[in-house]
Amino acid sequence: MKTLENAIAQVAGLPEAEQERIGRELLAHVEKLRSLRADLDRGIASLDADAGKPLDMADVIRRARERHARD
Questions:
Q1: Are 52 and 46 in contact (CB under 8 A)?
Q2: CA angle 64, 67, 68 (to 5 degrees)
Q3: pLDDT category, 26, cuts 50, 70, 90?
Q4: Cβ(36)–Cβ(30) below 8 Å
Q5: 11: helix, strand or coil
């Protein structure tokens, strides 16, 4: 947690507009992590329920790249 606290202290010294931009970026990143965690939890639950099925890995990679592509 010390790294996060240090980062917040460093950001606090920046102009307000930069603080806002960094805050928005951080919140967007956290939301992506939460979404990924939810996807993983659903996948694990599906496997635990023995509902797994074979995957086309090329399709999985293509969809992941489309979903997580940076603008």
A1: yes
A2: 85
A3: very high
A4: no
A5: helix
